[in-house]
TrEMBL record:
Coiled-coil segments on the chain, per record: none
Protein family according to the UniProt entry: Belongs to the LysR transcriptional regulatory family.
Name this polypeptide is given: LysR family transcriptional regulator
Keywords carried by this UniProt record: DNA-binding, Membrane, Transcription, Transcription regulation, Transmembrane, Transmembrane helix
SUPFAM superfamilies for the chain: Periplasmic binding protein-like II, Winged helix' DNA-binding domain
Organism of provenance: Mesorhizobium atlanticum
Pfam families assigned: HTH_1, LysR_substrate
Gene3D superfamilies: Periplasmic binding protein-like II, Winged helix-like DNA-binding domain superfamily/Winged helix DNA-binding domain
Transmembrane parts of this sequence: 209-232
HTH lysR-type domain sequence ranges: 5-62
Keyword Transmembrane tagged: yes
Amino acid sequence: MKAPLDLDQLQTFISIADTGSFTRAAEEVHRTQSAVSMQMRRLEERIGKPLFEKDGRTNKLTEEGDRLLSYARRLIYLNRETLAAFDDQRLEGTIRIGTPDDYADRFLPEIMARFSRSNPRVELTVVCEPTPGLVEHIKRGNLDLALVTHNDTRGQSEVVRREPLLWVTSANHATHEQETLPMAFGRPNCIWRRAAVDVLDRQSRDYRVLFSSFSATVITAAVLSGLAVSVLPECALRPGMRVLGEADGFGQLPDCRIGIMRGQTSQPEIVDALARHIAESLDNISVPVSEEAGSFDFAALAFAKMKRVKANQIMPGW
């Protein structure tokens, strides 16, 4: 029977993967660079596969290294959760978190499950509002933490996930072929709405806003019923939607960046723990829809991803 994997080696491996540098990883794990290199040699010997390859000045994961990364994150998380379950000094209190409802639907189940298992004495109070409202709540001290759509002009947030922003229509209707394009958008201050309007204006495409709402449920219903076209991040895709691309006459949109904003709080330990759980949860969540007949156009989605990877050198697997 093979010996179990070393958790310290896995933690160092994750740090290298996240920073792209043995030197910066050594600073994070408080070891010398030579000690980090020795850990990785031993981990590669244990796995029996090369985990890194040089890409200029950075250390890029091999295919085997990329496979190991998801397992390593889960093992480190499970170790932390196990220790927390037997910690008599576990965190307790109440924390206020805010998120738009489109993120809540996709991300909150995973976030809440992970966090509650590790911190059963912490009560979560959840507020669902669009990002502009959440930013104001953070500024006024009404929230301890918010998961928001990152916008450089709204204030600082820590980006924890990047996804393609996509044109979507109903898979069962030809709404996108109408001469005057019916659109379903968020409120006028929605960053996705402004991005979509900029693209349509540059293409001199006639459109009219048929539905305007801060509710993701309303926007989704308008798209699925064939009443309107909209723009949604990858996480908000649903069965019955079709992704539109340049072949359909729709220009490329900027990526959606999902970030964490922190408020002034008297419980920084709980906020830090929740922020860490959010980052880990979002890192493990993949496309929400299965590839089957009647879902959405995966070829268009894959093409959109490929273009972004080539243009921005963003690693796939957002």
